[in-house]
Amino acid sequence: MIVGERKPFDEIKEKIKDYKKVFILGCGTCVSVCMAGGEKEVGLLASKLRMANQLEDKNVEIGEATIERQCDREYIEPIAEKAKDYDVILSMGCGAGVQLVAEVLEPMPVIPALNTCFIGITQEEGIWAERCSACGNCLLADYGGICPITMCAKGLVNGPCGGSTEGKCEASTEKDCAWVLIYNRLKKQGKLDNIRKIFPPKDYSTQAHPAQYVQEAYLKAKMGETNE
Ligand code: SF4
Ligand code: SF4
Q1: Among 2, 19, 53, 117, which residue's beta carbon has the most beta carbons within 10 A?
Q2: How many Å apart are CA 225 and CA 108, to the nearest integer?
Q3: How many Å apart are CA 190 and CA 112, to the nearest integer?
Q4: How far apart are CA 6 and CA 31, in angstroms?
């Protein structure tokens, strides 16, 4: 999932200070799971903004809604009419969601209330951890299911850098060395021979931005329908 965290309150307040009608829009998918931009967080931010405005004697209308996904047009369109009653959207979706909301509701200004952090997993309750850098050419099969690009601070694909100490990374002693993890996993899998293989340099051209994925089968089916 995409993991995000709410921006500092003062930064949000500063960005919306010139607007009189603010519509806070939450997202019910990834950022809801990581407790950054779901319905509950929308409610908390709305209350905090109302209180702050009251203390400063400012008359600002705050609206709230949470849609299933901000990265999907079909969920944004139904709130388009309601959005017209406001001066600005304060989006609590990830960066992709903010951009699609801005595109669908153009020319309405859309301000991000979150910082989008990474693609990750739930490590334990309240803790999320990065696992994938969306490189566009997944290498996990050769590394025991541990991503050298993301989990190694240097993104090394052919073994450790030599700075690893007692299983920890030289870039941060709080983090495990990815190559120790990879070694241990491959050992358990009986695939330690993989460690001796020399892999070609990572082809980062597959990570060219902005990327696009086209589902051929879906397109063909759609074309077939159109031709009928
Ligand atoms: S190899 Fe690439 S796609 Fe696979 S987990 Fe790592 S960054 Fe993600
Ligand atoms: S210590 Fe391990 S994880 Fe850290 S940069 Fe070196 S090889 Fe990568």
Answers
A1: 2
A2: 35
A3: 47
A4: 10
227 pLDDT higher than 80? no
User: Which ligand is located closest to the Cα atom of residue 147?
Assistant: 1
User: Which residues lie below 8 Å from residue 101, measured CB to CB, with a gap of 6+?
Assistant: 25, 70, 76, 89, 91, 93, 110
Instruction: Starting from the CA of residue 152, give the closest ligand.
Output: 2
Name residues contacting ligand 1 (CB within 6 A). 132-135, 138-140, 147, 149-150
- Structural contact between residues 142 and 136, judged by C-beta atoms closer than 8 angstroms: no
- Contact between 31 and 38 under an 8 Å Cβ cutoff? The reply is yes
164 C-beta closer than 6 A to ligand 2: yes
Residue found by looking up tokens 């010139």 in the block: 18
| Residue recorded with tokens 């859309």 | 110
Distance 183 CA to ligand 2 centre (A): 12
Identify the residue whose C-alpha is closest to ligand 2 atom 4. Answer: 169
Residue-wise pLDDT tens digits, 65-78? 999 999 999 999 99
